Amino acid sequence: MASEQQYLHAHFYDLLDSSRVDPADASVRFFLHYALRAGNALELGAGTGRVTLAIAGQHIPVWAVEPSPVMRAACLVKAAQQPHLYPFFTLLPGSAQDVRINRSFRFIYASGVSMHWTSEDQWHAVLENVARHLADDGIFVVDNLCLTPPEHNDSPLAQVSQARLGEIEYRTYFGRTWIDKQRYRFHTRYEAVYQGVVIEAYEDDSIGSFLCQETCYGLLKEVGLQVRAAYQDFSFTLVSDTAEQVILEAGWS
């Protein structure tokens, strides 16, 4: 799972990932496709509101759950600059497995967070909660699954993105060390560099995991859900043998 220390870097997230602020980004369009048809939505793990606020921007009521106070604060700062979203945007503290909302949703989704569910028991708890909130005609979508178990090669810390604001360059570094067949330790470093000197830096280790498509099929079945479609990208391309990630769409059996 992600640590609260990692979430102290929330102010770097949008800056170093343009997809978080670009409403034309394929992943935003992907989830918006479902929300437009559903008429309401629940997001499990809102982060800084990348998808949540795009849905609210279409005047679709969306509830978002986020465990980190720092990430919620970053999301609320963005929402505060868009008063027209206020009637459509509800941000709640809590986790995907224990939040309780007294309503059902026609669309529930988890975008970019499933790697923080680090055991099959935690996955089962999340999916039980999805089933608790999913409407009879509802759809659940989750991404970041894998087709087959990944190669267990450690990755040294390496720069993966950068952005420049005025005279300061911001950088992100990622690395990964495997703990066992499913879990890995994720190393993250953020830097702010001014005139060649690092003036601000944050480092963090968190635990993540991979879950294969086949395992997720079984866990969904345990709570009464079944897969309706499997995609390999946010353009709705059906999964092939070379897919680097799997996105599952599920509904009631």
Summarize the structure.
By secondary structure, the chain is α/β, with parallel strands linked by helices.
Architecture overview:
It contains seven helices and eleven strands. With 253 residues, it is an alpha/beta fold. The chain has a seven-stranded mixed sheet, sandwiched between helices. A four-stranded antiparallel sheet has the order 6-7-8-9. It is globular, with a radius of gyration of 18 Å.
The DSSP helix count reads 7
CATH C-level name of the largest domain: Alpha Beta
* DSSP helix fraction: 25-40%
Number of strands: 11
Instruction: Show unreliable segments.
Output: 1-6
* Second CATH tier, the architecture of the largest domain: 3-Layer(aba) Sandwich
Strand order of the largest sheet: 3-2-1-4-5-11-10
Secondary-structure-derived class: alpha/beta
Mean pLDDT: 90
The helix/strand series, from N terminus to C terminus, equals: HHHEHEHEEHEEEEEHEE
- What can be said about the biggest beta sheet? 7 strands, mixed
The CATH topology of the largest domain is: Rossmann fold
Q: How many separate structural domains?
A: 2
General shape: globular
CATH-assigned homologous superfamily of the largest domain: Vaccinia Virus protein VP39
The N- to C-terminal Cα distance equals 30 Å
